[in-house]
Specification:
about 475 residues, alpha/beta, 16 helices, 13 strands, globular
């Protein structure tokens, strides 16, 4: 159809094609002082040149679907394409969150509400919690929600509690979440075995402690066998135990946090349950609670009625209120739902077994080349140190940059803070033995290069469009101004 005819039909209301830009601008009556003095300096290129340009840029992206992504404490596992397919089903993707639940054709939402309800039930079973809310949109958001629930519990009981204890190896969001919720944070040191110092913990625990925030296994990849003892001590003072679920991948089907004394837990669906992760989202950080905290959960909650239908419940007088619009990141919940029901209980157990096996394999193959932070069997991740390499002028950052040249995403570096020149490696369960061996060989090669040619490591990366950037200067001197050519 000729363009002129399409335009005529659009003016007559019989076609959804927009009129030419000049006509739109004319009708908008933009004041003259806001109009361009000269045409925009946009490149004049053919469609195929534009397509090739953006495809070339896309090939420079790095993701877990292109190569190994051993980012420790983030669980960058492969996301099955099944989850992506399920999230695109029209019956889910085309729903609007304001559709009615049961009236005026509201049966359209019943499938979505059932998915949320069933996901909550499955997560409760996996973690040993009584009930979940799916609203929080990320792990840190879940943390804040969890601490707000703790605060509501103590407020109603008239408890004058002002402090939260957290290990010095904790994720940085733990103290941040507690502080935002109004608590002062007390750091508990790590002992010689990489666990929270139980003697120092007992010394710091008093009647003002509202909660203890723990990651178990911790960020050193070590399981703290004192956790139940600590929980008993906290509960004796009417405090609560908070479980940072970032590392749940290590204990799926093996250990339930609720069974060892935890009262509140947040999960990272974008970590443990194989939904997209990184780039600022999307994410999901659902929060589970023990029985005595259920009444404080955010509204609304999905409930199952006696007639088998599902509805949103708002009549919860002690609720902390809304923490997110609507029902959380529903597309992410769908992917986690499909992941859980596809694997089943036996599959989830294999996830943790293979994750722990892979981490210990990497650790034992590399600890002769890089210092072991704690030379003990680890769980889902291992922490090595580049302290010896640093004596030769090559730091963890340099090793990370050289890994880029070898085709691997670097592991987490300089965390946890209790380890100097830390390199935290989490292979997850989805990596094959062949892939792990190639990564291990690359790390060994870098160790040899540092011995013979340390400068080449400090010059890395050399295979990327840009070389080594001054990241500190870039962060301190950001310039967003538009400059004239």
């Amino acid at each position: 159809m000729p363009v002129k005819l399409i335009y005529e039909k659009s003016k007559q209301g019989r076609c959804g094609v927009r009129p030419p830009q000049s006509d739109v601008l004319a009708r908008m009556e933009i004041p003259e002082e806001f109009m361009r003095s000269k045409p925009a300096e946009l490149p004049e290129v053919s469609e195929i040149d534009a397509v090739r340009h953006f495809n070339e840029l896309s090939r420079r992206n790095f993701g877990v679907d292109t190569s190994f992504y051993p980012l420790g404490s983030c669980t960058m596992k492969y996301n099955p394409k099944l989850g992506e397919e399920v999230s695109r089903y029209e019956g889910f993707a085309a729903l609007h969150p304001l559709l009615p639940q049961l009236r005026l054709g509201g049966m359209l939402t019943q499938g979505a509400l059932e998915v949320i309800y069933e996901t909550e039930r499955m997560l409760s079973e996996i973690t040993g919690m009584a009930e979940f809310t799916m609203q929080p949109m990320a792990g840190a958001h879940g943390e804040l929600t969890g601490v707000m629930l703790i605060a509501a519990y103590h407020r109603e009981r008239g408890n004058n509690k002002t402090k939260v204890l957290a290990p010095d190896s904790a994720h940085g969001t733990n103290p941040a979440s507690a502080a935002i919720a109004g608590y002062s944070v007390v750091s508990v040191p790590t002992d010689s075995r990489g666990r929270m110092d139980i003697d120092k913990f007992e010394e710091l625990l008093d009647d003002e402690v509202a909660a203890v925030m723990l990651t178990n296994p911790n960020t050193l990849g070590l399981f703290d066998e004192n956790v139940q003892k600590m929980a008993d001590m906290v509960h004796e003072r009417d405090g609560l135990m908070y479980y940072d679920g970032a590392n749940l991948n290590a204990i799926l089907g093996k250990c339930r946090p609720g069974d060892i004394g935890f009262d509140v837990i947040h999960l990272n669906l974008h970590k443990t349950f194989a939904t997209p992760h990184g780039g600022g989202g999307p994410g999901a950080g659902p929060v589970g609670v023990c029985e005595k905290l259920c009444e404080y959960l955010p509204i609304s909650l999905v409930v199952k009625r006696k007639d088998g239908t599902y509805a949103l419940e708002y009549d919860r007088p002690k609720s902390i209120g809304y923490v997110a619009p609507f029902y959380g990141n529903f597309g992410v919940i769908l992917k986690a739902y499909s992941y859980i029901i596809t694997l089943g209980r036996e599959g989830l157990v294999r996830v943790s077994e293979n994750a722990v096996l892979n981490a210990n394999y990497v650790f034992n193959m590399l600890k002769e080349y890089y210092s072991a932070a704690f030379d003990l069997p680890c769980m889902h991740e291992c922490v090595l140190s580049a302290q010896e390499q640093a004596k030769k002028g090559v730091r963890a950052l340099d090793i990370a940059k050289m890994l880029i040249d070898k085709g691997y995403h670097p592991p987490t570096i300089y965390f946890p803070l209790v380890v100097k020149e830390a390199m935290m490696i989490e292979p997850t369960e989805t990596e094959s033995l062949e892939m792990l061996d190639t990564f291990i060989e690359a790390m060994k090669e870098i160790a040899v290069i540092i011995e013979n040619d340390p400068q080449s490591c400090r010059d890395a990366p050399v295979t990327t469009p840009v070389g080594r950037l001054d990241e500190v200067a870039a962060a301190k001197n950001m310039d967003f101004s538009l400059k004239e050519r």
